[in-house]
Structure formats: structure tokens, C-alpha cells
Amino acid sequence: MFLIINQGRTSTSAIVARPNAGRGTFANDYVLTHLLGGFAALKRCNDLTIVKQKWDQEFELADLPSNEMYQRSCFGRQFSTVAFGGEVVPVLSKLLAAANPGGINNQDEDRRTLPSIVRIEPEQHEKKKITAAQSPRRSDDEDHDEADGESPPAVGQNVACKLLGSNILRGEVVECKDDTTYTAVFTNGSSVELNLEEVSKARQLFSNELEKLMNVNVSKADASNIGTKASIAEKESAPRPLMADGDDIPDDCERAYEVEFQGATPKLLVGLQFPKVKRIWYNSTTQLHEEVDMWEHVLRTVSEKLIVEGVETPAQVLSLQRAQEE
Asked: pTM of the entire structure?
């Protein structure tokens, strides 16, 4: 099944979407010649009701791994991929440089690679689908708490304030000194006195941010949680390197900088995803060239540069910390 969206008379391309493969942009000539014409021309359907029904049916059929077919020449839509998450921004320039050895302005489009920004919900595939009729109805009290910005401020109410740029800092009202002065504590540990107008604006900002998160399927409990204050105060546990200090650097040199993941799997993650293409990597041990995935090539290139620059590995840092403690 193909959903073809005409972009108007002035456009030379059309948007083509499939339930199992997502959407892409194709030239109008290609659509007319290969999809609406040719050896296996598609049968048109302009009835939106039928289109929606057929789309939902095939979307359900396509809920399979990408290496399994649900009908002739149609594979499932569950693609496995690798995404870079966490504190990516500080090393973004290094990742882009590693992905584009000829420079980001390289004219060779095959060699110019930019990652996609992806939103990942690791637990989403495990959740059962809940229809609107089955989903629990939010209570009137919940709606009142979110929308009623006119009610008097009280201890325990959530607030938010803007920092530089678009950053939002969350907190809660902890003290009402009188009818015009309030104290709020934010997740960075700061305590701020607010007057009535300021605390009303802070409550409204929190409500606006809460609504944005709930609109992208974040539960109200998670969206309104300001418990990060407790985790900030906790002492971070030492990273656990996968390799010991003194081990030889392996051919897959990125392992030298790997550490064991600690903590719970995040419910929501925004990261970078590189295209599923191959790159050539020279193995210095076998003195042979081998094909590796793009994401692996990026990691190895960055890691190799760190080794050449003498950047300490996590194992070396941990060993040094232990020596200092002794």
C-alpha cells in the first residue's frame, strides 16, 4: 500500500508513505511512471474512509521485524538500529568530523553524512495499546490542578522558571510567608523568594511545560515529577570500565573507552542516529580492510584520535583515583 501526497502544481515531487517503511520524497515522473503506471500499476483509491481503514489494517500486519515478510515483497516495520544518547552535545563536532572524513562541506554526497535526531521510548513496545474507551479518565481534580492558575499559591505546588536560552528549571513552593511573599526551591538547590505575580507566572510556566510533555505521550506522573533534586544530591558511583588498566588496546579501540551502564533504562531518550551504511576500516593487526557499520566507524575514529592525543581511558582514570585515595 502506498499513500501518495501531491504537493501542488509548483512542486516537482510527491510525498510517498508506506505503513511498513515510513515516508519519503519521490519525483513526480517516478510516481507516474513506476507507481501509477508501468508493469504493476497501483490501483487508485480516493475514498479517505477506505484509505484509513486499509492503512490501519496493513499497519497492524507490518508490526513485525524487518527481516520477516507479512505479504509478498513487504517486510515488517520493526527496524533495529543504534542511536547515540546521553551527553552528545559536547562531542557533537567530533562525531560529525568522524562521519565526514572529507569535511562536512564535501561535494561528494555519498561521503557527506549527517545523523538524524531521533526520539526513543525503550519501553514503548512493551506497553499494551489502550483505546480511548479503555484509558482511565482524568479526574476533574487533576484538570483543575493543571488549569486553575487563579487559585491562591500553596505549599507543594509546582513552579518553573526560565534560564538562559530555552532551558527550564523546575521547583516547588515550600513556604508561604504571607499573602504576597513565597519561597520556592528549584532542582538545582537554589531557594528563591517570589511575590504573588512571580509565583503565578512560575505556576503557569510549569503548567505549560507539563502540557507539552503530556502531548508527546509522557505520563502525567513522569511529566510533573521534580524528583531530580534528590538525584543531584546523591554521590555518583564510579564508572565501571569494561577493560582493566594495563590491557592492550584492541582492534575495536572504542572498547577502551566503554563503561558499564548503571541505573534504570530511561523512559524517554533523544539521541543521534547515523544511516545504516557501511564504511571501510583498516585493521592494523590483520592489515586488511573490513566493512563496518557507520556508527561503529564513527566510534572507532573518535576513539583512535583520543588514543593518539593521549586522552586517558576510564580504566586509567579509575586506577589513578584509587592510587590517590590510598
From this structure: 0.47
